[in-house]
């Protein structure tokens, strides 16, 4: 009954016989920590999808109150702060990129407007068009008078 072949490579064939934990309290604590980690991850994903932010302070506070009285790794809160700092830096980068894009769009729009005006002025000079709206109105009035008579 010895495992033969490559299929067992990297697999734990005695998983069913391993020790699952020493006490019920320890198992319950591990399960609670795991559930809280999953809740936090889901809240982070939802907030990122909706607003581009991480878990809110209310969620973090709820997690702290739920874990009060239990021995939990103190590095977990530090890791949460690092994640929050990274997300804040990412949001700032996005905002600065967005501002740069808007500035670039405005520049491009101004340049196009200047080019359009320049083109109109060149056309007016070449073909004798008037660039003033008052002159256009006067020309239309004269034309109507000629057609009416």
Automatic annotation (TrEMBL):
Record domain Multiple myeloma tumor-associated protein 2-like N-terminal: where: 2-50
Biased composition (Basic residues): 100-113, 139-149
Region feature (Disordered): 61-149
A matching Pfam family: MMtag
InterPro entries hit by this protein: MMTA2_N, MMTAG2-like
Biased composition (Basic and acidic residues): 114-125
Name used for this protein in its record: Multiple myeloma tumor-associated protein 2-like N-terminal domain-containing protein
Natural source organism: Rhodosorus marinus
């Amino acid at each position: 009954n010895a495992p033969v072949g490559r299929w067992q490579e990297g697999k734990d064939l005695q998983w069913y016989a391993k020790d699952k934990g020493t006490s019920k309290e320890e198992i319950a604590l591990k399960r609670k920590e795991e559930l809280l980690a999953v809740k936090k991850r889901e809240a982070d994903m939802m907030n990122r999808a909706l607003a581009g932010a991480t878990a809110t302070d209310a969620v973090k506070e709820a997690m702290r109150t739920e874990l009060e009285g239990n021995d939990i790794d103190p590095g977990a809160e530090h890791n949460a702060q690092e994640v929050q700092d990274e997300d804040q830096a990412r949001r700032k980068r996005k905002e600065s990129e967005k501002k740069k894009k808007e500035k670039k769009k405005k520049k491009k729009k101004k340049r196009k407007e200047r080019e359009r005006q320049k083109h109109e002025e060149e056309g007016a000079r070449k073909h004798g068009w008037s660039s003033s709206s008052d002159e256009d109105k006067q020309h239309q009035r004269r034309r109507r008078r000629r057609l009416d008579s």
